[in-house]
Structure formats: structure tokens, C-alpha cells
Amino acid sequence: MSELKQRISDEMKAAMRAKQKARLGTIRMVLAELKRIEVDERIELDDTRVLATLDKMQKQRRDSIAQFTTAGRDDLADIEQEELLVIQEFLPQPLTAEELTVIVDTAINDSGAQGMQDMGKVMGLVKPQAQGRADMGAISKLVKERLNS
User: Fold this and answer.
1) How far apart are CA 11 and CA 129, in angstroms?
2) I need a labelling partner for 101 at 20 to 30 A (CA). Which of 71, 84, 112, 149 fits?
3) What are phi and psi for residue 21, nearest 5 degrees?
4) If we measure between CA atoms, which residue out of 52, 65, 50, 39 comes closest to residue 2?
5) What is the pLDDT of residue 137?
6) Which of 97, 147, 98, 94 is nearest to 122 (CA)?
7) Which CATH architecture has domain 3-89?
8) How confident is the model at residue 16 (pLDDT cuts 50, 70, 90)?
9) pTM, whole model, 2 decimals?
10) What is the tens place of the pLDDT at every residue in 96-120?
């Protein structure tokens, strides 16, 4: 079992003991998604794949919060916000704008990217370093800005 998955499982037990229903529900949802992936693909998830799954779940929560807020459903947005906070506990510290810029610039130099046609090469180098630590949409936007300048 991956270290991160074990940590999530331990946190579930702690939430059960502390009778934290909302937190427990979110952690169970995360573990269920990880188990679903393992069963569907017949694999044992490593930390990288667990991080990618948590990152995806984080993005889904952000999208839901935006939609619920737009629709005036603040009650549902609050629930999604609570879930987002629990999911973020298991993700590494987010990258600062400066760190992200350094990673992108290094990837552009290492890949020898000349223009937008090389964006895939750059993103391929950036993604493993930023997975779970930055919004891929923001990274993509930054790469486009750098390649167009």
C-alpha cells in the first residue's frame, strides 16, 4: 500500500474515533475512489497516482463550488468547500508563483521549446513536478505566456 494511501486510511480511523462525521464522509469518499481505480484497472496505486487522483478530486470540488455559488446554492458550496479542505490536507504544499515560474522556465530551457508547437514537451516536464501542488490550468496559461513571449 502506498504511504499516502496508508496515511489517508489512518486519518479515517482517527476521524471515526473523534466522531467527525463530515470529515469521515470525505475521507471515505476518497478511499472509495482510490479503491475503484484499483479494482477497475487491477493495479496497486502508488503515491504518484494517489496524488493525481486527489488533484482531480480537488479540481472537481473547485468546479462544483463555482457552479453552486453562481446558482445561489451557498449551502451546497459550503459542503464542497469542507470536502476540499479535507482533500487538500493530503496534498503537498502548493507551489508559490515564483517556484512555478522557475519550474516552467527550466522546463522550457531543458526541452528546447521554441513556440506553441512545443507546449506538449514543456507540459510533460512540468506536470510530474507540479502534480497536486498547482492548478494545471494555471500552469498551462503560464507556459503559453512564456512560449508566446
Assistant:
1) 26
2) 84
3) -60, -50
4) 50
5) 86
6) 147
7) Orthogonal Bundle (1.10)
8) very high
9) 0.81
10) 989 999 999 999 999 988 888 989 9
Asked if 119 contacts 147 with a C-beta cutoff of 8 angstroms, the reply is yes
Taking the CA atoms of residue 96, residue 61, residue 121 and residue 37 in that order, the dihedral angle to the nearest 10 degrees is 130
Q: Is the pLDDT confidence value at 11 over 90?
A: yes
C-alpha cell at 10: 489512518
Share of the chain above pLDDT 70, in %: 100
Longest dimension (CA), the chain: 56
* Domain boundaries, given as residue ranges, for the chain: 3-89, 97-148
Name residue, grid cell 463530515. Answer: 22
The answer to whether the beta carbons of residues 140 and 113 sit under 8 Å apart is: no
Same topology, domains 3-89 and 97-148? Answer is: no
Fold for 97-148, please state it: Arc Repressor Mutant, subunit A (1.10.10)
